Amino acid sequence: MHLIAVTQVRHDTAGRVYYQRKLAEGKTEKEALRALKRCISNAVWRQLQVDLAAR
Q1: pTM score, two decimals?
Q2: Can you give the residue range of the structural domain that contains 37?
């Protein structure tokens, strides 16, 4: 998860926009990165649930 989050922050992606929005909200860099990781893990979990339901 960490490598995915760091890669998204380094490149021009939706993850970077999310990270910058969290920084603008007053979060520290660590808190913003943690929030991005949570967002990514939630997206992965939702996709796993969709795949499971499709079986």
Answers
A1: 0.91
A2: 2-54
Cβ pair 40, 5 in contact under 8 A: yes
Structure tokens at 55: 């079986």
Q: Structurally, how many domains does the chain consist of?
A: 1
Find the radius of gyration of the CA atoms of the chain: 13
Contact 35, 27 (CB under 8 A): yes
CB 37 within 8 A of CB 2: yes
Taking only the tens place, the pLDDT of each residue in 1-43 is: 999 999 999 999 999 999 999 999 999 999 999 999 999 999 9
Q: Half-sphere exposure (CA, 13 Å, Cβ side) for 34? A: 5
